[in-house]
Amino acid sequence: MRDQMEQRLDELKREYEAGQKMLADLEQKKMTLEQTMLRISGAIQVLEEMLAADAPASSVQAGEARAAVPNGQV
């Protein structure tokens, strides 16, 4: 009976160690994913700001283009 308990204890310890390794790997992947998402979020913000800053200029340019075409046809 004692041998069976020791064998089961060894199995459980190996499973626990494997679980710890898996958890560490997942935590590393989570950190990497969070960093990637932060960079993507920053890029989105920059592009949105650039588009917002460019929107009034684009509207003015489009209006000028319409005014340059006879009868306002574009």
Largest sheet: none
- Give the overall shape: rod-shaped
Number of helices: 1
Number of strands: 0
Tell me what the structure shows.
- By secondary structure, this protein is mainly alpha-helical.
- The protein has one domain.
- It is 91% helix and 0% strand.
- It has 1 helix and no strands.
- The longest helix is centred in the middle third of the chain and has 67 residues.
- The N and C termini lie far apart (91 Å).
- The mean pLDDT is 87.
Short summary:
Helices cover 91% and strands 0% of the residues. It has 74 residues and is mainly alpha-helical.
List the helices and strands and how they pair.
Elements: H1 2-68
List key phrases describing it.
74 residues; mainly alpha
